[in-house]
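Sequence and structure are no longer studied apart. To make this concrete, we show below a single chain and its fold as C-alpha cells.
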Amino acid sequence: MKSAFLSLFLILSTLIPAAYAGNDVMGEIEFEGKSKVEKTSGVWVDGQYVGYLKELKGSKKVLLLPGEHVITVRQNGYQDFVARVVLQPGEKRLVHVEMQHAATGAMPAVTSTVKISVNPSRAAVFLDGQYAGHVDEFNGAGQGMLVAPGSHTIKIALPGYQAFETQINPLPRQKVEVKTDLIKSSGTTDDPSLNRNPGEHTPPPPPEPAPPPQ
C-alpha cells in the first residue's frame, strides 16, 4: 500500500506546480552525494525505484506521506546504502549518501563493451538482474558498459514505462549496442527490478534522529 501511495505522489509531483504540491501535509526527501559515484546511484524509496540521485529535485523531487520510509541507494560495485527516516508533516529532510566499495571479483583480462541507446535516458539499466546504472552513463562518445564476453541479460526499466529486456552474447573485445524506445505504460509498474523489498539485501538501520527545531 505504501508503494502505491509513493507512485501516486511521485506522478503528481511531475504534473502540478511545486508551489501547489508543497503543502503542509507532504514531506520531502532531498539527497546529497559528494562524488559522481553517489550522484549517479539509483535510489529506491520503500522498495520502489524513483530515479538516480542527481535528478531527484525540482519536478522530480521525492514527496512522501508523513511516517517511516526506507531509503536504499544502489551502485554497481558498491554496498547498498540504506537509511530509515521518519518524516513529519511538511518536513524537508536531507539524506547524505556515501557509498562504500563492495568486495567484488576482478574484471576479466578481456572484456566486451555494451552501449545503451534508450529513451528515456534516465531509465535504469540492469545487467544479469543487478542494477548497473542509468542509460545516460552508457550512451555517448567514449561511454559504454564493460562486461565479460558471453551471454548476458540486459533489462531497461523506468516507472511509468514497460520494461525492455534482451539477451546479448558478445565476443571478446566486441562492441554491441542495445537500442530502443521504452513504451509508456497505462498502469502501475510491477517489474520486480523496480519494486524490491528494501530489506532484501541489507537490514535497515535505526531511524535517523529528526533535526532540532529551527
